[in-house]
Write a structure and sequence with these properties.
The two termini are about 20 Å apart. Helices cover about 10% and strands about 35% of the residues. By secondary structure, it is mostly beta strands. The protein is globular and about 35 Å long. Strands 1, 2, 3, 4 and 7 form a 5-stranded antiparallel sheet that branches.
Length: about 110
């Protein structure tokens, strides 16, 4: 179980649910995503679907989640730090591996 403020580390492969375009593959780039659970505002690539996906996971767990655009980046889309653009209204599939969870990032 996660609590607000927990530090979470995940590997994620995010693909377009309709055409399979890969937007994020942290295992390939060897750059996992780290975020603070339920901290707002969410900063892409973190989205509601990712938080919901990890909610009941345990370290080492793997989950595949198909998410509607409203739980990803909605009508605004997103531009990631590497310049990757996720178009508005995009439904995605998230392949999530929970690497780390702790009550502090220190």
């Amino acid at each position: 179980m996660f609590f607000t403020g927990d530090f979470v580390g995940v590997n994620v492969k995010m693909t377009d649910a309709n055409d399979g375009v890969v937007y994020i593959d942290t295992k390939r780039t060897k750059r996992p995503i780290a975020f603070t659970y339920e901290r707002r505002p969410l900063i892409p690539p973190v989205c509601v679907a990712l938080e919901e996906g990890v909610r009941t996971m345990r370290r080492g767990g793997v989950r595949v989640v198909t998410a509607k655009s409203k739980n990803v980046f909605g009508d605004r889309g997103a531009v990631l730090t590497d310049g990757t653009r996720i178009p508005p209204g995009t439904d995605v599939t998230l392949e999530i591996t929970l690497e780390e969870v702790s009550n502090s990032y220190l």
